[in-house]
Amino acid sequence: MAQYFLIHPDNPQPRLIKQACAILHAGGIAAIPTDSSYALVCHLDDKAAAERLRRIRQVDDKHHLTLLCSDLSELGAYAQVDNRQFRLLRAATPGPYTFILEATKEVPRRLSHPSRKTIGVRVPEHTVTHALLAELGQPLLATTLILPGQSESMNDPEDIRTQLEKLVELVLDAGPCPQQATTVIDLCSTPPTVVRLGRGALGPLGLSAET
Question: Which domains does the chain carry?
Answer without folding.
Answer: 3-205 (3.90.870.10)
